[in-house]
Design goal:
The protein is of the alpha+beta class and 216 residues long. It is built from five helices and nine strands, in the order H-H-H-E-E-E-E-E-H-E-E-E-E-H. The strands form two sheets. The chain has a seven-stranded antiparallel sheet with strand order 3-4-5-9-8-7-6, sandwiched between helices. Strands 1-2 form a two-stranded antiparallel sheet. The longest helix has 27 residues. About 23% of the residues have low confidence.
Length: 216
Amino acid sequence: MKKIYTLLSILLLTILLAACGTDTVNESVEPVTPTDDTATTEETTPAEGETGNVEESTQAEGETESIALPTEELEGTQTESETQNYTLTVMEGFELTAEEPNKDLLFNQENDQQSMRIETFSKEDAKIEDITKNLTDTVQASNDNGTLEEITDQSLIPINESIENMNAYQIDTPEGKVYGYAFEREGLLVKLTVFDTTEVPAVQNFVKMASTIQAK
């Protein structure tokens, strides 16, 4: 009789344990309903490849901003030398005239003490080194007691993308300043001597016009 009660107790215990195990399994696999926060996170997460597109767009904008604007064209009259193989743009208020063979003079019509002597040579007939040496002698001769200085101020130097081998000098004189330039542009060698006054200087206008000198 005791054996029967024992067997019944074991059987009941086994049934209870099985029932508990089933409930536990059901609870562990119960689906989780996504909250609003989860949905929002999924919507705001960028899709694969979007980050690269944003970076490329930003880089493209930066490249556009770094592009340099074209240089403003000088206003004036395109003028040919009567005795030399070059042209230049002459600003209003200035005049180009032949001074002597192979030398032209560009002067301010309102103040003829402000002028620029222009001499040009071909690469077959001269070398930039010889022209530069002659230039420094010319500028120094304007004031034997003065100190010849190399020009570093870019606003006082003719600038053009095709100008090469630029040499620029200046010296003080009792009347004002004398500037000298020797450079090469597309096979044309150029020597310039600018005579300027201290009061209302015109050197920057001469420099702008000098930047337009080119072979015919």
